[in-house]
Each structure stands twice: as structure tokens, then as C-alpha cells.
Amino acid sequence: MILEVPFIVRKGKNCYVAECLDLSIVTQGPTLKEARKNVAEAVNLHLKSARELGILDDELEKLGVIKKKNRLEVIPRELENISIEIPS
Fold this sequence. Notes:
globular
């Protein structure tokens, strides 16, 4: 099963910072391409470790994946924005 894992990337002073907020993973790279590669590697390692520790189902649930009748099912998620007034 291939899972689309959301992450954000922002430009730092000297590098790009990539964050997978659902799994609390943060990494960086000197280029956007490298930051994307690093976050993918970090998520893969995180999920492999979770499997070894017996907590993979819990970590997948953070990504919107649940197990039903021994099958994995992706729960559709919608990202929303809210408007916040910046204090002056």
C-alpha cells in the first residue's frame, strides 16, 4: 500500500526545513529536493521502527489509516484554514 503523507517545507536561513506534523518529524536539507528526500527517509525509518516496536497501527492512525477486518483503510481527510487576526 502506498500512502500519501502530508508534510510542509519552509525556507530557512541556510537550508530548507521539512516537517511531517502528523508524526512530529522534522528534518532539513540544503536544497528543496534534498529536504523532500530527507523527510521521506525519516518517515520511512519512523514507520519501520514503529512496526518493530509493535506500535505501527497507532502511528498509521495519526496519518488517517485504520485497520478494519485485517485490511488497512485510509480515512479521507480535509485540510482547512482558519482566519486569524494578527494582534497589532
